[in-house]
Amino acid sequence: RKRRLSTSNNNGDNGEPQAATRIAQSYAAMMSQIPLSDVRNFCFIAHVDHGKSSLASRVLELLGNFSLTQDSFDKVATTPQNSSNVPNYDEHNTKDTQISSSNNTNSSKEDYLKLDTLTVEQQRGITVKASAASMLYKPRDPAICSPDNPTKHLLLNMVDTPGHVDFGFEVSRSLQAVQGALLLFDASQGIQAQSLSVYQKAKEIQHGQIALMPVLTKIDLPHARPLEVALAISDVFGFDPDAVIHTSARSRIGIEEILEAVANNVPPPTAVEDASNGNSVPFHAQVVDSWFEPLRGVVCLIKVLAGAIREGNRMAVLNASFFDNTNNSTNNNKDHFSVQEIGMVVPHRIRTHELTSGRMGYAVVGLRDPRQARPGSILVAHADLNFIAQQIAMNPENKNTHADKNNNSLWSTNLKQIATQNSSSNNNEKSVLFASVHPMEAYEFDELVAAVDRLALNDTGLEVHRTSGASNSTGENGGPFLGPGLRIGFQGLLHVEVFRQRLLDEFGMEAIVTPPKVPYTIQYLPSKSSRRSQDDPTEEVIEDLANWPQSGERFDVLEPIVAVRVIAPVEYAGSVMELIKRKRGYDMETQPIDDANWMFTAHMPWGEVVTDFHDSLKNCTAGYASFDTTEAGVKKGRLAKVSIMLNGDVVEPLTFVSHVDAAQAEARVVCKKLKETLPREQFVIRIQAKAEGKIVASESIKAYRKDVLTTGGSKAVGGGDITRKKKLLEKQKRGKKRLQSQSGGAGGGKVRLSQAAFNSVIARSN
Question: Which GO terms describe its biological process (predicted)?
Fold first, then answer.
């Protein structure tokens, strides 16, 4: 009796999970029946905080994707609906079902921002990683679907992208994988700097073949001005004002209109075929994204370009370097693996056991080394590896030959082009900032290396520089103050902050990140006192200021220049122009966007932008301005290296480059801020700044004295015996000398450096 009751209770408790599994399997089965011609790949692109994630979440909510993995399915209505967009999950019910959505339009932002899964995204309220999801949609016009589609649904693969300029590499990578993009504009803010930037990217990628659709968001806000913004969009971008879709994620307005626009305007992906005879080519897929899970290893988000991938298949990962190696013996020994799990992302995972052409999904590939499957790599069947190597050896110059009877040489040629164009090394935008990352303790360096490798797998904007191996002797040398570390390239200051926070949130690794520095080009001039040999190059790029030319050398410094585009309200025009001039901007031009906003363009040194230009711009415009940058070459400048010394020892991570006219003022600010942030020690800390061989600023932190002549409060030591007192004072004196000799400096002790000390260098112009 107890066993029967136990079995009955278990079945009752597991009813809903079993229903979830049945619904998910039915959902996946319908997806597998949809032909490639009924697949739509699209993404959301916009300026930061223009409602991309909110709108994407509302789309998933309308189509019922969030309910696929909920514990309760009481929202699944069995009443037939003519406008249903959710497929039939019941095998005995041939009619569609629809998941009802709440009519409450006052839901909080956290209720529907379900695509931002990283802790840093939820805390900061921004998107830093592109996220994908697949869904089924039944269009209003059934003629849109192919006649051979039994489901009469479209398979939509949606990608939500970041909006901040520091994560533009995520936008570029997402645009490579789609055929359409929804360009969003805030109905109250209008056109912003990143709106222009992402529009230009969409036009440049895939030779301008991406279908663009303008969308207005947040039209229900009291200060929204949809008509004015729509007319401005028409003037700047050339869109038809009547074609602009009006939406609101909070009020659930215009969500289905977005889906209809995607269904009617976005073309399906092109089937990959051998152009010589039209035959389908063997399986290959592109790695769109990848991440590391401690229990399962490397997990890849893939886009199947041709063929099908199933669980248990033997696969190999190819990158651009594979196609440069024509040694067949090396290619034959290429590492391979067995696919452990295959499924689709909705945005939760649904296991489907296989993915066919045109599908996007995840694959657990069983790799433990995060560097083996970076985004941009190509997955191929291990059985085809020898054939690919032979084709590369026969066709090293990438010519379209038809030597084999199946005419498959074009396939290997296309693989090489895809791997070269979309590999992680070529697809990444160039790093514009370089910083050193050090663990809090030297013995944690190996853990830091492992954490950075896993994080770099998921963050392709990072550029990690280190020698082979991972030991305390291989990495960036931080000197006596920091110890070993890594040299990493970033896309901007926000990218640096997000990287440091993700290290702490995802790996529990607290690290010190030194002030980022821009790369400078050094041109050496002839000099009799030069210590350089004739074989040394006359020009080199300096990413680490420790390699700055020594005294006695004659050289010119070329600093990187960026074209800055600022969009701000017209009433702040004077403040914006004054700020640009103060930051050594030149070639300034102004252009009205609409009646409320102007666009300012100028050229500025990149070193001036990365310090505090963002904060200064927000302060002088009450937070309403936005800006973006593009590279504009290099320009000769009158620059000087400012070295920061603590008790006579140069602290290279605190060193910075400044314009000669501002070097002394900025050095004084840094010394003053270091005085406020460094903790007091039992010895005097002398803070000095040195530029062009002279001390230009100096501060000191007084030592605090421990009263060794009292114990337990105010009780005196010695009882009147002066010998005992002298002995304690001499012991304290010897201890201070020992502290002063720990760093080996000229009378300096070992000073404890914190992250706040390095942040003082970043905001040195305040």
Answer: positive regulation of translation
Task: Round to whole Å and give the CA distance between 762 and 435.
Answer: 12
Q: Which two tokens stand for residue 12?
A: 């009752």
Q: Which domains does the chain have, with CATH numbers?
A: 39-63+107-265 (3.40.50.300), 284-427 (2.40.30.10), 434-513 (3.30.70.870), 520-637 (3.30.70.240), 640-762 (3.30.70.2570)
Contacts of 23 (CB under 8 A, 6+ apart): 68, 73, 76, 89
Asked if 655 and 669 count as a contact pair (C-beta separation under 8 A), the reply is: no
Strand partners, 701: 685
pTM: 0.77
The one-letter amino acid code at 628 reads D
Per-residue DSSP letter, 671:
H
Select the highest-mean-pLDDT range: 113-127, 183-197, 457-471.
183-197
Q: Which of 158, 223, 211, 164 is nearest to 183 (CA)?
A: 211
Q: What is the DSSP annotation of 401-429?
A: ---STT--HHHHHHHHHHHHHHSHHHHSP
Angle among Cα 396, 399, 401 to the nearest 5 degrees reads 105
Is 578 a residue whose pLDDT tops 80?
Answer: yes
Is the confidence at residue 45, as pLDDT, over 60? Answer: yes
Tens-digit pLDDT profile for residues 4-29: 433 334 444 444 455 556 666 677 77
| Token pair of 289 as six digits | 């994204």
pLDDT tens digits, one per residue of 514-536: 888 889 999 998 887 777 777 78
More confident residue, 492 or 152: 152
The torsion of the CA quartet 322, 323, 327, 329, rounded to 10 degrees, works out to 50
Reading the block at residue 320, the tokens are: 């651009």
Alpha-carbon dihedral angle through residues 203, 204, 205, 210, given to the nearest 10 degrees: 20
Would you state the torsion angle of the CA atoms of residues 705, 689, 442, 368, taken in this order, to the nearest 10 degrees? 150
Supply the DSSP symbol for 726.
Answer: H
Give Cα separations from 257 to 102, 656, 731 (angstroms): 19, 52, 81
Q: Which two tokens stand for residue 425?
A: 């090394």
Segment 587-608 mean pLDDT: 91
Q: Is 51 helix (H, G, I), strand (E, B) or coil?
A: coil
